[in-house]
């Protein structure tokens, strides 16, 4: 039996490839499915099953395209009701993949259909658990997502189900089982996930707060719900795409990979309601960008911030990327359901600049310049980090408007007085700067290097408080 984790860092997502005797299975695939097909072909294997642990919220799964291209069967756990052909497994139903077996164990809690898959090798030994969002390394899946799709599934009800699933279905299993979760640190599907992406069940029983054997149901629910932040707005929309179906990734790529000259790009921008999305790095964006474009850099949590800040997943999008990054950008948009890229600027921003067309810039200052301004002018400062980051340590006198809520707080940002923006390192504040610039603000500067750079100066800050005390 061969089991491989295929990890995608920008989404903190893990898919899994299982192969035995020329048959293969894929668990929780991403939208672009060719890498899984290529992996199976490398082994000379046929993909027999696509196993889904649940209807995902943070990404659009590749189950439909993968099944269509390989004739594999899609498998969900009990209670799942997809709008397409799929096998709905019974609790403890066993599937054969070559000489090994996969047993579906219904573990509701994160969602009602959530299912863990036990991997049993060719010798009949129980090897590991593909746990989806039921059990992470250091954490368990948040129980508040399904209620955004089904209102009467409250987070308290789901947390109670998860308590039972963990204690009755998973904790009694052998300590030497390997845990293979769907996500690692950085995912919004949990709150305290480890950077490690696998572990033994025995270690998790010792170190995972949610698996403490002496926890009562009430204690579990309280600890699980404490500190949960509002989930990104695109999560329910991704759930519905995963339930109802979606357009093939091939069609999405074909539409998005339309190359446009500067003149064509300008015409399309003027004749449609398309959003101009610039995925270059912050340093490059700051020194020149197309008016009204938004910067969300591809080099960080691109898909997450697209989902947070672009409310309509059907929004038409025109792309400005680094040369050679066009397909990657379209693909990463499609991973979270943004399928309506309608073209990109051929040659990138350089083409726009060389055509002599108007462009904008964002003024940036160094941390040292900020320190001097802070001492002499008492400037208005907006910190766009998360509330927990701001609460743990911030510049005295700064106001906190987290980036994910900036559109709801625009009235608090002055247009008649100068102000300064910063985040942790510069990525999020440049996104904020581009949004403000698009909305008509021009009376601000951004701190290059953000709070990390400012903290090396003598600007007064609040005392550091361990973030764990803020949960």
UniProtKB/TrEMBL annotation:
CDD domains: POD-like_MBL-fold, RHOD
Family annotation (Gene3D superfamilies): Rhodanese-like domain, Ribonuclease Z/Hydroxyacylglutathione hydrolase-like
InterPro entries for the chain: Metallo-B-lactamas (IPR001279), Mito_Persulfide_Diox (IPR051682), POD-like_MBL-fold (IPR044528), Rhodanese-like_dom (IPR001763), Rhodanese-like_dom_sf (IPR036873), RibonucZ/Hydroxyglut_hydro (IPR036866)
Keyword Repressor among record annotations: no
Metal-binding is among the record's keywords: yes
Signal peptide (UniProt feature, chain positions): none
Keywords: Metal-binding
Domain Rhodanese: 270-361, 375-463
Superkingdom classification of source: Bacteria
The protein's name in its UniProt record: Rhodanese-like protein
Organism the protein comes from: Emticicia oligotrophica (strain DSM 17448 / CIP 109782 / MTCC 6937 / GPTSA100-15)
């Amino acid at each position: 039996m061969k089991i491989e984790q295929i990890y995608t860092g920008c989404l903190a997502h893990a898919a899994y490839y299982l192969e035995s005797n020329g048959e293969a299975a894929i668990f929780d695939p991403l939208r672009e499915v060719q890498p899984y097909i290529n992996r199976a072909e490398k082994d000379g294997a046929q993909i027999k099953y696509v196993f889904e642990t649940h209807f995902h919220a943070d990404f659009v799964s590749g189950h439909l395209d993968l099944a269509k291209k390989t004739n594999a069967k899609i498998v969900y756990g009990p209670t799942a009701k997809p709008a397409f052909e799929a096998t709905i497994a019974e609790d403890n139903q066993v599937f054969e993949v070559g000489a090994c077996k996969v047993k579906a164990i219904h573990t509701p809690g994160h969602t009602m259909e959530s299912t863990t898959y036990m991997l049993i090798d060719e010798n009949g030994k129980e090897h590991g658990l593909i746990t989806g969002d039921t059990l992470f390394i250091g954490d368990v899946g948040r129980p508040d997502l399904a209620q955004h799709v089904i209102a009467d599934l409250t987070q308290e009800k789901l947390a109670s189900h998860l308590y039972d699933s963990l204690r009755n279905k998973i904790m009694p299993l052998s300590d030497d089982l390997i845990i293979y979760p769907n996500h690692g640190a950085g995912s919004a599907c949990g709150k305290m996930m480890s950077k490690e992406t696998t572990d033994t069940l025995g270690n998790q029983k010792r170190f995972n707060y949610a698996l403490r054997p002496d926890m009562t149901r009430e204690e579990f629910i309280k600890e699980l719900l404490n500190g949960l932040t509002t989930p990104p707005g695109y999560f329910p929309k991704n759930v519905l795409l995963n339930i109802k179906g979606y357009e093939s990734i091939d069609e999405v790529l074909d539409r998005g990979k339309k190359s446009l000259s500067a003149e064509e790009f300008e015409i399309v921008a003027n004749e449609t309601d398309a959003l101009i999305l610039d995925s270059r790095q912050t340093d490059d964006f700051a020194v020149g960008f197309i008016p009204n474009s938004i910067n969300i850099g591809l080099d960080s949590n691109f898909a997450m911030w697209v989902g947070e800040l672009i409310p309509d997943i059907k929004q038409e999008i025109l792309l400005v990327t680094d040369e050679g990054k066009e397909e990657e950008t379209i693909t990463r948009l499609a991973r979270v359901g943004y399928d309506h890229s309608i073209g990109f600027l051929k040659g990138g921003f350089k083409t726009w600049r060389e055509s002599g067309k108007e462009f904008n810039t964002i003024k940036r200052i160094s941390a040292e310049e900020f320190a001097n301004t802070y001492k002499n002018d008492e400037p208005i400062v907006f910190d766009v980090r998360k509330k927990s980051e701001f609460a743990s340590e911030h510049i005295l006198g700064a106001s906190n408007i987290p980036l994910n809520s900036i559109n709801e707080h625009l009235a608090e940002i002055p247009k008649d007085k100068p102000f300064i923006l910063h985040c942790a390192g510069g990525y999020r504040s440049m996104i904020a700067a581009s949004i403000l610039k698009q909305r008509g603000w021009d009376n601000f500067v951004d701190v290059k290097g953000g709070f990390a750079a400012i903290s090396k100066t003598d600007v007064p800050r609040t005392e550091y408080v361990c973030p764990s005390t803020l949960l």
